[in-house]
Amino acid sequence: MAPQKLKKIFLTTFKWILICVLIGILSGSASAFFLVSLEWVTQFRIHHDWIIWLLPFGGLLVGLSYYYWGESVAKGNNLLLEEYENPQKLIPLKMAPLVLLGTLLTHLFGGSAGREGTAVQMGGAIADQFTKLFKLDNSERKILIILGISAGFASVFGTPLAGAIFALEVLYFSKINLKSIVLSFLVAYAAYFTVEFWQVKHTHYSIPVVPEISISTLGYVIIIGILSGFAALLFSRSTHFWGSLFSKNIKYPPLRPFIGGIVLAIAIAGFGLTKFSGLGVPVIIDSFSNANPWYDFLLKILFTGFTLGAGFKGGEVTPLFFVGATLGSALSLIIPLPIAFLAGLGFVAVFSGATHTPIACTIMGMELFGIQPGLFIAIACIIAYFSSGSVGIYKAQIVKGAKFKLYQKFQKEELEHL
After folding, report:
1. How far does the chain reach from its first CA to its final CA, in angstroms?
2. pTM listed for this prediction
């Protein structure tokens, strides 16, 4: 091989390793700061529950900030997906502080939301700034978006393998090249170890008892997968429904979270439903040892869909964990399997159905719960993926592959019978 070619390969390799390390450190540090801040505002709200009555004013602040300064980044995660599919303009760096502030305000005042959207958007905005710095073309810019999503997801949940695969899978695997795969794993671990360096801890879950493989156990796992898929479908439809309802009926965007905040404050504080505020991590943890009421997962779907649809900021993934874990926990009353096992399956399966990412969710399940329940996790995630419909939480996501072809086939058969 010619020396010039070797030099070019070396410089290109060095450039991308440097980019991955920088994105990992910056995104990981942003996520670490976010996680610490989120814990602080959550604890403040828990110890001062009267603050929920100020949720409308928190919503107004979020709405005004996006209306006057963040209109170009209001699409959030969908903007990242759109820019990957059809690169147009550099993602403004202001996306990071705006979504950070919006999410902290949402959680401080008691809105029901997650955190992955915030970390992914911060990671995506940070990563895209390297386009100009390194003078990258559109194909290389697509890699940056993958890296930003990977770094954000891996750092906020402490699951680097799942984060790397999630970034690839959510953007449709067949368009991903080997270079993207390697770099996605590299940046995920860089971000993950950055959070570890800052000594920020993640929530730990466990499935202490895994049942033996049997026909009956597999049958129950399939049922869990189907029900999780239906819950994911309901969650996605709910979020889109409330978002559409607010945008159609309230023309001035800042008023949407203000009015939505009034409704949420009355419902949450007035009826003593504070466990549906924020992330709901204590409820998720409890669901692994105590059976939840059958309606808990439905109320979390309602509150999260309403919160995000009204214009508050945050993510959907932790609420999806809540929905899945409480659904599985409630099913322990009628399914003769260990409660933690059922909660764990629901935890990842609902997430799989709502994001169309069964591989990433299977890996995440094994990162969180260990290798032993891996087969059951994979079955539940795949069944949920196929039973959750063609619309997920991300409107801009391109759904292709086996699921897409299956729904196309059904639609074609329905048309032929008309």
Report:
1. 63
2. 0.94
